[in-house]
Amino acid sequence: MKHTQKRLLLRRFHFALCVGLLSFISWALLTPNPFTTVRYTPLSPLSALRTVSDVLLHCGAYSLLSFVCYFLVSNRQSVGARRIMLGLLLAHGISSELLQELVPNRNCDPLDGMANMLGIAVGTIAATWFHPALRHARIVIHPTQTTDPLSMEI
Question: Is the pLDDT reported for residue 154 higher than 90?
Fold first, then answer.
């Protein structure tokens, strides 16, 4: 597999990760009771998050989402791509909070909406802080003699 093919595969995986994370967060925000839903599934450890503050959950989820999605658009030189990504995340954070008013057992809480925006800001700031270090790290992927098909050197 050529280097460009590996980069394309990695980029597609990264895109799928962003879409999956966005889908999971959307599901969690627009389900009447997500903790009860995951109780008897492989995601049952997430039920322990019930004791965590709702504001911290919103902030943490959107921090992770913006951090992961930032690197999807950061390889492009266009600042516009990053602004579009931030705008879409902000629109998602606000609209998902407004849509909760239509979901049984959920309500629209402005504090959660502000936590979503704060999480986006925190994740973006963290990503811009880590981005120069990751850009200068040299990652070499090569086959080895062991059973591990990929090896990374940083």
Answer: no
Q: Look at the alpha carbons of 118, 124, 128, 134 in this order and tell me if their dihedral is positive or negative.
A: positive
Could you give the C-alpha distances from 114 to 56, 58, 118, 120, in angstroms and in order? 11, 9, 6, 10
d(CA 154, CA 136): 10
pLDDT at 150 over 70: no
Angle between helices 79-99 and 110-136 (to 10 degrees): 150
Q: Compute φ and ψ for 152, nearest 5 degrees.
A: -120, 135
pLDDT tens-digit map of 44-66:
777 777 667 888 999 999 999 99
Selected residue with higher pLDDT from 46 and 17: 17
Q: Confirm if 16 and 59 have CB atoms less than 8 A apart.
A: no
| Amino acid sitting at position 97 | E
